């Protein structure tokens, strides 16, 4: 008889922590950091973990609503479960919070399947295509200080000392300031450090085009979220009328959400987040679909070690595009901004010479510390 792993219990965990120093991106200030983890336990006592992107207090009730539909189901039948849950909320949740909650469940189910098989998730997904990945540092947010350029340079020096060879600059503070800041940071980093730029959709198409042309000589790796995610026409304009490669997709959901971006070639680099777009199952479909259209996939990563581990398993199986002896593989976004929960929940990722190894333990290869989980739980 085929093996079966019946689900016994589904538990969402809402975790919150105040930040000692607030920080901002172009849309809002962060004065606390949170996480929503999903714990799924089988009748045999195997526990899988997942994580949702988005506001924890809003995604957790959706997981709780899904839970009775999951109890008794076979955790090994991940595709069947994904379709069943998506279809139950299809009329109400084709994007946003419902898909973020589904993402956490999907990741946890992959974790269980890996543990049952005794294999890392990427092996179950047909990989690995690579055993390590180059990392770039995310952070560089605004603080409640007047010396914005100076503290970003200090932060950059810390990341360079850690071994990063790529640093993502946050912009979205006004066109003139962004242009000046971009030039100042490139001078500070020198020509050999990779520097993507992310404005978190602070511009309309006209502003993004002006910015892109103004800093075109600064060797920007990519221009991330130049316009709001709904503005596909704006993405197309920005891509056409300035020379920096355009990236986006962290706020886009499922293969259906990415379909228009891909078909219209609205971006050069797609950035699905495994904790938001529908989980590992959906992120792999999106990456494969992008490859068929000649587009690169470089996942967005934001969260604790659970989301980070899931992203590493995905990166392990994203095809090189284009393939060849000297490909341009995806990079790992490694968030270095303050996050007390992340830092306590799982061991820090080991960065060696600017790269991170793909996990090779069964399942995700990581689980949260129970004491830290209890400490931060709301």
Keywords for this entry:
378 residues; alpha/beta; three-stranded antiparallel beta sheet; 13 helices
If you had to describe this structure to a student in words, what would you say it looks like?
By secondary structure, the chain is of the alpha/beta class. 39% of the residues lie in helices and 18% in strands. The strands form 3 sheets. A 6-stranded parallel sheet has the order 5-6-7-8-9-10, with helices on one face. Strands 1-2-3 form a 3-stranded antiparallel sheet. Strands 11-4-12 form a 3-stranded mixed sheet. Strand 2 and strand 3 form a beta hairpin. It is globular, with a radius of gyration of 20 Å.
Write the layout of secondary structure elements.
Layout: E1 7-25, E2 28-42, E3 47-52, H1 56-70, H2 78-88, H3 97-117, H4 121-124, E4 132-138, H5 148-162, E5 169-170, H6 175-189, E6 197-198, H7 205-214, E7 223-224, H8 232-241, E8 246-248, H9 254-263, E9 269-270, H10 279-292, E10 296-297, H11 305-315, E11 332-335, H12 340-345, E12 355-357, H13 370-376
Parallel strand pairs: 4-11, 5-6, 6-7, 7-8, 8-9, 9-10
Antiparallel strand pairs: 1-2, 2-3, 4-12
Helix pairs in contact: 1-3, 2-3, 3-10, 5-6, 7-8, 9-10
Could you report the average pLDDT, rounded to the nearest whole number? 97
| Strand arrangement, major sheet | 5-6-7-8-9-10
Strand content: 15-25%
- Structural class label: alpha/beta
How do the SSEs run, as a string of H and E?
EEEHHHHEHEHEHEHEHEHEHEHEH
Give the tally of β-strands.
12
**Total DSSP helices:** 13
The largest pleated sheet is described as: 6 strands, parallel
> Could you tell me the radius of gyration in angstroms?
20 Å
Terminal CA distance reads 42 Å
Query: What overall form do the CA principal axes indicate?
Result: globular
- Name the helicity range: 25-40%
Name the poorly predicted regions.
none
């Amino acid at each position: 008889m085929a093996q079966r792993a019946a689900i016994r219990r589904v538990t969402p965990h809402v975790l919150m922590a105040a930040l000692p120093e607030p920080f901002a991106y172009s849309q809002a200030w962060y004065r606390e950091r949170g996480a929503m983890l999903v714990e799924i336990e089988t009748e045999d006592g195997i526990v899988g973990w997942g994580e949702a992107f988005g506001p924890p207090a809003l995604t957790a009730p959706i997981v709780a609503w899904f839970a009775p539909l999951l109890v008794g189901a076979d955790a090994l039948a991940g595709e069947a479960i994904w379709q069943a849950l998506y279809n139950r909320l299809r009329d109400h949740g084709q994007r946003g919070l419902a898909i973020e909650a589904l993402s956490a469940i999907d990741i946890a189910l992959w974790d269980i399947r890996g543990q049952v098989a005794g294999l890392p998730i990427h092996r179950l997904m047909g990989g690995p295509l690579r055993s390590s990945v180059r990392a770039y540092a995310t952070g560089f947010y605004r603080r409640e200080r007047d010396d914005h350029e100076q503290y970003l340079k200090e932060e950059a020096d810390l990341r360079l000392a850690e071994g990063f060879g790529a640093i993502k600059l946050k912009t979205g503070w006004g066109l003139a300031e962004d242009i000046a800041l971009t030039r100042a940071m490139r001078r500070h980093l020198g020509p050999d450090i990779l520097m993507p730029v992310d404005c978190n959709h602070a511009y309309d198409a006209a502003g993004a085009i002006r910015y892109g042309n103004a800093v075109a000589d600064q060797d920007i790796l990519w221009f991330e979220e130049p316009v709001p995610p709904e503005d596909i026409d704006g993405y197309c304009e920005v891509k056409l009328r300035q020379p920096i490669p355009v990236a986006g997709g962290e706020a886009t959901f499922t293969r259906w959400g990415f379909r228009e971006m891909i078909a219209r070639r609205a971006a050069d680099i797609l950035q699905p987040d495994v904790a938001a777009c529908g989980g590992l199952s959906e992120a792999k479909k999106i990456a494969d679909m992008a490859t068929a259209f000649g587009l690169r996939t470089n996942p967005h990563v934001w969260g604790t070690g659970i989301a980070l581990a899931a992203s590493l398993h995905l990166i392990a199986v994203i095809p090189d595009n284009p393939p060849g002896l000297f490909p341009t593989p995806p990079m790992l976004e490694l968030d270095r901004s303050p996050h007390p929960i992340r830092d306590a929940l799982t061991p820090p990722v080991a960065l060696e010479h600017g790269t991170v190894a793909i996990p090779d333990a069964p399942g995700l290869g990581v689980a949260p510390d129970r004491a830290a989980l209890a400490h931060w739980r709301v």
